[in-house]
Amino acid sequence: MTSSRAQLRLTNEVKKQPAVTARDLKASLVQIDYSGTTQNKSLHTKRTLLYFSKEHINTPQW
Question: Which domain of life is it from (predicted)?
Answer without folding.
Answer: Eukaryota
